[in-house]
Design a protein that fits this description.
Two copies of one chain form a homodimer. The first copy, chain A, has helices at about 5-20, 20-25, 45-55; strands at about 30-35, 45, 60-70, 75-85, 90-95, 95-100, 105-115, 120-124. In chain A, about 25% of the residues lie in helices and about 45% in strands. The termini of chain A are far apart. By secondary structure, chain A is of the alpha+beta class. Chain A is built from three helices and eight strands. In chain A, a hairpin with a 2-residue loop joins strand 3 and strand 4. In chain A, strands 1, 2, 3, 4, 5, 6, 7 and 8 form an eight-stranded mixed beta sheet that branches. Chain A is globular and about 45 Å long. The longest helix of chain A has 17 residues, at about 5-20. Chain A has a single domain (about 5-124), classed as Nuclear Transport Factor 2, Chain: A (Roll). The interface of A and B includes residues 71, 75, 94 and 111 of A. Chains A, B: Keywords: Isomerase. Chains A, B: One of its GO terms (molecular function) is isomerase activity. Chains A, B: InterPro entries: NTF2-like_dom_sf (IPR032710), SnoaL-like (IPR037401). Chains A, B: This is Steroid delta-isomerase.
Chain lengths: ~120, ~120
């Protein structure tokens, strides 16, 4: 796996978290991928379980910005900001996600580092 | 593990990477901790093997700055910058480290996300 291929996959991931659709996000994941979001929660295995996460996001207005991306071999860590707006509230969250890739460039594992203290909610 | 206890351990870690000594850094690690720095390299298990990493740093002038810290349960992810100076060269590296802690607040695992492209070297 070339670093450039992983870089493009992560950039596309952060972009798709903003725009959707869920199906295109899931296409970045291997079929048996495992996601822990946030880290420490029950792992979600496979596209159906993982898709629930992104379907929930699809209900709200959202915007993402990629900050820092680090890559080595089949591993990546990325910090980005997600801002969602719904029902008169703005939620801002800047997680650090770590991802592992298979040799086809698909995500086999993702763990999102953020805690309840990291979620900022404002009235708009 | 309270988030505050992990926060203080990570802040102390980043500070000690600047100041040393190695012994105090190792005191933050459980005896059988495993470190992968950078991620994908051979894991170092135990204080003796881990200490080699920080002993190498002890030979050079260094400065650290913590940027972002995310915590959930026994897990933390931190982005920080390390600047070292030695032999007329300045090396700047901003890794993203992920850490897992035991119930005593000691680091049981650390994986450092950075690649060769992320190390900037300048003449000084």
């Amino acid at each position: 796996m070339a670093a450039q291929q992983i870089r493009e996959a992560v950039e596309r991931y952060v972009q798709l978290v903003e725009t959707g659709p869920t199906a295109e996000i899931l296409a970045l994941y291997a079929p048996d991928a495992v996601v822990e979001d946030p880290i420490g929660s029950d792992p979600r295995r496979g596209h159906a379980a993982i898709g629930e996460l992104y379907d929930a996001l699809a209900q709200v207005q959202r915007k993402t910005e990629l900050h820092t991306l680090r890559i080595n071999g089949n591993h990546a860590a990325v910090s980005f900001t997600l801002v969602t707006e719904a029902g008169g509230s703005r939620m801002t969250l800047s997680p650090i996600d770590v991802m592992e890739f298979d040799d086809d460039g698909r995500i086999t594992g993702m763990r999102a580092y953020w805690g309840p203290d990291d979620m900022q909610v404002d009235k708009i």
